[in-house]
Amino acid sequence: MGRMIAALSRRTLVVGLSLAVVFGALLVVSSAWAGQAVILSTTTSTQDSGLLDVLVPMFEKKTGSIVKVISVGTGQALALGAKGEADVCLVHAPDSEKKYVADGLLTNRRLVMHNDFLIVGPAEDPAKIKGMKSAVEAMKRVAEAQAPFVSRGDNSGTHQLEKKLWSEAKANPAGAWYLSSGQGMGATLGIGSEKKAYVLTDRATYLAFKKRVQLDPLVERDRILLNIYSVLEPNAAKFPRVNAAGGKAFADFMVSQEVQDIIRTFGVDKFGEPLFFPDAGKQEDAL
Predict the structure, then answer these.
(1) 3 state DSSP class of 227
(2) pTM for the complete prediction?
(3) 117-225 matches 38-115+227-286 in CATH topology
(4) Which of 2, 18, 42, 135 has the fewest CB atoms within 10 Å, i.e. the most exposed one?
(5) Burial class, 35, CB count within 10 angstroms (exposed 0-12 / middle 13-18 / buried 19+)
(6) Would you state the pLDDT for residue 36?
(7) From the centroid of its chain, how far is CA 248?
């Protein structure tokens, strides 16, 4: 009986030590990046809309980590992640995103939310595009009228869509009527207002700046204007210096139910409508 009790005691001790090792390892993994900065490369619309002002402090409070936000055009944001110079990307250029994933530079692309683009312009509407159902036809009419148009010109997701619209309209945007700001969405809307020009904008930034600019919504709700945001992580196998755990934690945070619920109502109190619609777990074809 004494030997049996001793054997059981030894077994209990071994099991206890094994569990301690496992839990200790989990704590090391979970705390290995805690306190480290997480570098987020993202598009200007997530910053200009005010969404990150709500979500970043939440993440920092939950994890004890600081998020360093690099807010640029989506083209630049993706390039930073694809070079291992960011830990996570929150962007809106599906074709470019899929290319980086196919090339093995970015991984784990997940939908976060969507809104849409619209063409805004002066109330005078010199190209007479108000109410048109086709964004492509509207852009064609702007080019034919050589009406002032301000482009971001920064290879952002917005600029990539703009170039696609010009291409499908078989129009060559060039000349004194076509201006390139080389700046973010908010600044581009400001220039468009000053120049009484047309601008292609995401809805969230337009609503956030609506009271500061004199530009009216003219063309909207065309399927081609759908604006999808995704979160991606750099390939840690290619970029070992990336804070992969921190980047994944932020990506998981963006698709969590808590954040998706915040996205669902963000902007309603201020603008009377949400700036984004949550999409975690969805497929693009379902939008």
Answers:
(1) strand
(2) 0.80
(3) yes
(4) 2
(5) exposed
(6) 84
(7) 15
pLDDT digit string, tens, across residues 4-30: 333 333 433 333 433 333 333 333 334
Length of the chain: 287
Q: Please give the backbone phi and psi of residue 275, each rounded to the nearest 5 degrees, phi first.
A: -85, -20
Q: Token digits for 281?
A: 């777990």
In terms of Cα–Cα distance, which of 235, 230, 249 is closest to 84? 235
The helix or strand, by DSSP H or E, that contains position 29, with its residue range, turns out to be helix 2-31
Domains of the chain: which residue ranges? Answer: 38-115+227-286, 117-225
CB count, 10 Å around CB of 258? 11
DSSP annotation of 223 reads G
User: Each residue of 43-71: pLDDT tens digit?
Assistant: 988 988 999 999 999 999 999 999 999 99
Please spell the DSSP secondary structure of 60-90, one letter per residue.
Answer: HHHHSPPEEEEEE-HHHHHHHHHTTS-SEEE
pLDDT at 12: 38
Min mean pLDDT across 142-146, 147-151, 272-276 is at 272-276
Q: Is the domain 38-115+227-286 a CATH 3.30.300.30 member?
A: no
Strands 106-121 and 226-234: antiparallel
- pLDDT-based confidence at residue 35 (cuts at 50, 70, 90): low
The per-residue DSSP string of 109-152 comes to EEEEEEEEEEEEE-TT-TT--TT-S-HHHHHHHHHHHT--EEE-
Share of the chain above pLDDT 90, in %: 83
* Cα–Cα distance for residue pair 88/69, rounded to 1 Å: 10
Domain spanning 117-225, CATH class: alpha beta
Q: How many CB atoms lie within 10 A of CB 220?
A: 17
As a whole number, mean pLDDT of residues 65-94 equals 96
